[in-house]
Design brief:
This protein is α/β, with parallel strands linked by helices and 272 residues long. The protein has ten helices and ten strands. The strands form two sheets. An eight-stranded mixed sheet has the order 3-2-1-4-5-6-7-8, with helices on both faces. Strands 9-10 form a two-stranded antiparallel ribbon. It binds NADP nicotinamide-adenine-dinucleotide phosphate. Residues 10-16, 33-36, 39, 66-69, 71-72, 92-94, 112-113, 116, 120-122, 216, 219 line the site of NADP nicotinamide-adenine-dinucleotide phosphate.
Length: 272
C-alpha cells in the first residue's frame, strides 16, 4: 500500500470506525467525518483530522463512504461538489445496484465488506473486524486497474480478500445469505414470542438462530426496502428447498449438508 496516500472516511460507525481504527494503528494519513459531536471527539483520540465538515476530505486520494444506506446517495452528491475528479470514492453499502445508477465526477468504486456484527456505532467498531473477511467490489467497465489496485491494497492491509462481481449478482447473493436469514431470525423470534414456555426454556440453538434478529434496525429496514424483489426470490428458493429436503430422502440429504457446512468454516471464518 502507498504510504503517502491521504485516506478519508465518512461515517464513523461500526464499518467506518473499524476501517478508521485499523488504519490508524498502521499510522496511515487519515481524515474522517462523522455526524455527532461525541463521535468526532472520541475519534480525535486516534487522529487529529476529524471533523463534522466534509471539507476536511478535500485533499484525500481515496474516501470511504460508510454512512447508513439511506443517507449514502445524498452524501455522494455532496462529495461530488467538494472532491477533485482524481479522488477515488468507495462506498461500503450492503447493496450495490442502487448506488451504481448515477454518474459522479470523482472515480467511484462500489464495494461491500462482508464483515459485521449485530452492533452499531463508533464504540462497537474494532480494528480487527475485517480480518479473514471477503470484500466485494463491483467496479464499472471504465474503472482503471490502477485505481482498483489502490483499493485492493487497502483491503489487503485490513486483512480482507477482494472478490469481484456485478451489482446485480451481488444483490441476489446477499438476499440469500444475509437479508433472508435476518428476516427468518426476526420471524422465528416473533413466532416463539407468543409461547411463554418456549421462550423460558430456549437455549443456545434458539440463541444462535435468532442472533440476526438483533441487527441494526436502520440497516435492516434499508435492506428490506432496497432489496425486496431479491428477498422474495430467496424466500421462494427456501420454500422449495424445505420441500426438497423433507419430501424425499431426508437423511442422505442432511448428511451431505452436514459434510459441506462443516468444511465451509474454520475457526469461524469462511474458507471457501
Ligand atoms: P452504523 O454503525 O450505524 O454507522 C453509521 C454511522 O454513520 C453513524 O454512527 C453516524 O455516526 C454516521 N453518520 C450518519 N449520518 C451521517 C452523515 N450525514 N454524515 C456523516 N456521518 C454520518 O452503521 P454501519 O453498520 O457501520 O453501516 C454503515 C454502512 O456499512 C451501511 O451502508 C451498511 O449497509 C454497510 N455495512 C454494514 C455492515 C454491518 O454488518 N453493520 C456490514 C457491511 C456493510 P455518528 O456517531 O457521528 O452519528
Amino acid at each position: 500500500m502507498d504510504r503517502n496516500l491521504k485516506i478519508g472516511i465518512v461515517g464513523l460507525g461500526l464499518i467506518g470506525g473499524s476501517i478508521f481504527k485499523a488504519l490508524s494503528v498502521l499510522h496511515c494519513d487519515l481524515f474522517a467525518v462523522s455526524k455527532s459531536n461525541q463521535t468526532v471527539k472520541k475519534a480525535k483520540n486516534y487522529s487529529p483530522n476529524v471533523s463534522k465538515s466534509l471539507n476536511i476530505l478535500k485533499a484525500c486520494n481515496i474516501v470511504f463512504v460508510c454512512t447508513p444506506m439511506n443517507k449514502t446517495l445524498n452524501l455522494l452528491d455532496k462529495l461530488d461538489n467538494i472532491l477533485s475528479p482524481e479522488t477515488i470514492v468507495v462506498d461500503v453499502c450492503s447493496l450495490k445496484d442502487f448506488v451504481c445508477k448515477k454518474k459522479y465526477s470523482f472515480k467511484f468504486i462500489p464495494s461491500h465488506p462482508m464483515a459485521g456484527t449485530e452492533f452499531s456505532g463508533f464504540d462497537n467498531s474494532f480494528e480487527t473486524l475485517f480480518l479473514g473477511a471477503k470484500w466485494v467490489i463491483t467496479p464499472f467497465k471504465n474503472t482503471s486497474q490502477k485505481d482498483i489496485k489502490v483499493l485492493t491494497d487497502i483491503i489487503h492491509v485490513l486483512g480482507a480478500k477482494p472478490i469481484f462481481t456485478t451489482p446485480k449478482q451481488h444483490d441476489e447473493s446477499v438476499a440469500l445469505i444475509s437479508h433472508m436469514p435476518m428476516i427468518i431470525a426476526q420471524a422465528l423470534f416473533a413466532a416463539a414470542q407468543k409461547d411463554k414456555l418456549a421462550l423460558t426454556i430456549a437455549s443456545s440453538g434458539f440463541r444462535d438462530m435468532t442472533r440476526l434478529a438483533t441487527s441494526n434496525i436502520e440497516m435492516a429496514d434499508d435492506m428490506v426496502k432496497f432489496n425486496s424483489d431479491n428477498i422474495q426470490n430467496a424466500l421462494l428458493k427456501l420454500y422449495s428447498s424445505v420441500g426438497d429436503i423433507l419430501g424425499n430422502n431426508y437423511k442422505p440429504q442432511i448428511k451431505n449438508i452436514v459434510k459441506q457446512r462443516q468444511v465451509m468454516y474454520v475457526d469461524g471464518k469462511n474458507i471457501l
